[in-house]
Write a structure and sequence with these properties.
Length: 294
């Protein structure tokens, strides 16, 4: 890899502590509008579309302000790095985006959806009922908004955990240790679904467990490709696919639901990411050799 494209690394005195703090700050910040019930402050009797749109815009904006404005200014620009250096650090610089990396992300994304559908067919739970995406029985016919809403975790969680936080960890630790720590922090982040959104505890714990192998494989993919874009595409597709699966699959059978969840959340995503990252890897220099921990 040339010096021009080489990924920058910001030296942080206590990268794990800073990363842990940022994880909790992000968890509280993204759900702050919900906690403060701000939609009722800006709207009088908001319609379902106004409510869900405000929820998306507020979360997306707060995430963007945190990861593209607050963190770069406080931890990057104050250390003398330019905006170009910042983009290179989080592996979102134009030089780090190629048609090959985009194709890799799309291939894994499409393959994941196909594998999830095939898994449901094999378990006998596939119903192909897509009508609920626009049915009044769910979110007043706004189920389709998941294609918009999934942009939040797809973009910002990847920039946060596989971009900024991962780069902090790599500044002090070996690649292997940074991969593991990043996936554990990503897992802890999902606890906020229980703390602030009051989701079922068992469901949140399962999400947190599944986040470790998924986060680990996504971070590995970022190292392998030296680009965060494939991880963004894959993360987006995973969230959309799993959301839709709640509509098109009959998950009333407890044992089938557990098997489906284990395969679709813990087994299939890491397998496909590792498989296609290996298939797409070139014969040139492996980027993992450029990211030795300090």
């Amino acid at each position: 890899m040339s010096n021009e494209n080489e990924t920058e690394s910001v030296l942080i005195e206590h990268p794990l502590l800073v990363s842990l703090i940022l994880t909790f700050v992000y968890g509280f910040a993204i759900y702050l509008p919900d906690y403060l019930d701000l939609e009722n402050v800006f709207f009088t009797n908001p319609s379902p579309f106004e409510r869900i749109s405000f929820e998306f815009v507020s979360r997306f904006t707060l995430s963007g302000l945190l990861w593209i404005f607050v963190v770069p200014i406080s931890l990057y620009l104050m250390k003398g790095l330019t905006s170009r250096d910042f983009l290179r650090t989080i592996r979102l610089h134009p030089n780090q985006i190629s048609s090959r990396s985009i194709l890799l992300g799309l291939t894994v994304s499409i393959s994941f959806f196909i594998c999830v559908v095939l898994t449901a067919m094999l378990l006998g739970v596939y119903t192909s009922n897509f009508s609920l995406l626009t049915s009044p029985d769910y979110e007043n016919g706004l189920g389709w908004f998941i294609f918009v809403f999934a942009l939040i975790p797809g973009i910002w969680e990847e920039i946060a955990f596989r971009g900024i936080i991962f780069s902090f960890l790599l500044s002090r630790y070996s690649v292997g240790k940074a991969l593991l720590l990043d996936s554990v922090l990503f897992s802890l982040f999902h606890i906020f679904n229980y703390l602030l959104l009051n989701q079922d505890l068992s469901s949140v714990l399962f999400q947190s467990i599944a986040a470790i192998p998924v986060g680990l494989s996504l971070a590995y993919l970022v190292v392998k490709t030296d680009s965060i874009l494939p991880a963004i595409l894959i993360h987006y597709s995973i969230d959309v696919t799993l959301f839709i699966s709640g509509f098109i699959f009959d998950l009333s059978n407890t044992s089938s639901t557990l098997i489906f969840a284990l395969l679709s959340l813990i087994v299939i995503p890491p397998f496909l990411i590792l498989l296609f990252s290996w298939i797409f890897s070139s014969n040139g220099k492996d980027h993992t050799t450029d990211l030795k921990g300090k």
